[in-house]
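Let's see one such:

===
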Amino acid sequence: MYLSRLTDLSMRYCAETQGQNQKLPDLTVFCREAPSDIEAAIYEPVLCLILQGGKVTSIGDQTVELGPGDALLVSHDLPVVSRITKASAREPYLSLVLSLDLRQVRSLYDQIADAPAPDASARSLSVAPADPAWLAPLVRYLELMDNPLDAQVLGSSTLREIHYRLLLASIGAMLRSLLVADSHASRVAKAIRRLRSEYRFPLRVQNLAKTAGMSASSFHEHFKAVTGTTPLQYQKDLRLIEARALLTGRCHAVSEVAYAVGYESPTHFSRDYSRKFGRPPSREANVSAPAFQDVVLMREQKQTSAAAEGSGSLGARQSPPAETAGPASRPLRHHL
């Protein structure tokens, strides 16, 4: 019942906003009428519910296939590769995406402190069938689109309920781990923030481990347990995703992009790029993205373009920030 109602509401929401998705805060509906090529982006904390069609998503050694009624929750910033596998004009791929507010999550700490402990084996990318407990308030949230006053008055409380229900659901186990300040999930999240801001510079695992308050060996173990990938692979994925946004968004030379994202060798960059995306970076140049892309890529290209305009030449290299100075370079900030 809830999924059928959400599908109807989402189709109307997408049609009425004409792809702009600005009626309700933190909510995006994505619709596509054909399968996609490989897409790569940084998923920030988000809930994605598949309503029609199919999609394959992977991070590190974890690959999941999603179909109607499947939900994906991302608790940490993750470099994710995905591809829409099932979509047609008759039955488009349709997904509902809700950005998660970690401040909202943390505000619920005291209220759920006595709830059962989360699953210790949970990862930052979790998949489960949609749960009626959080589907019900999600339906109510979409129904607010017909009344701006209701949305203004009731929207924040409805979003709070959705966050609460997700925290108690099996899919929210890793999200709940973030509530504990010294948990492995929280410590890894601190390291990820630093890694995202310094991804252009040579990786020093010892510095990331220090940020996380762990030994280097313990940090490496827990980083992979939480994210499904290693710190080195995570950095490489950040560089390649940023490079792809630059190549598809503007007419940049491959070597220029390689140096801009932190590679010392354009040849090495081209090899890594081809291995990840299945084609050399030279084929991406001058290729425009589809007019109606996933909000992941729309926001990715918009933010990358704005940052490039403000920073001047791509080829300019910066020195890594001092250990005591904290992150100084522009962090990647993309959403699903």
Q: What stands out?
A: The beta strands are 27-32, 39-43, 46-52, 54-59, 62-66, 70-74, 78-86, 93-99, 125-129. The mean pLDDT is 84. The longest helix spans residues 148-168. The chain has two domains: 2-177, 184-311.
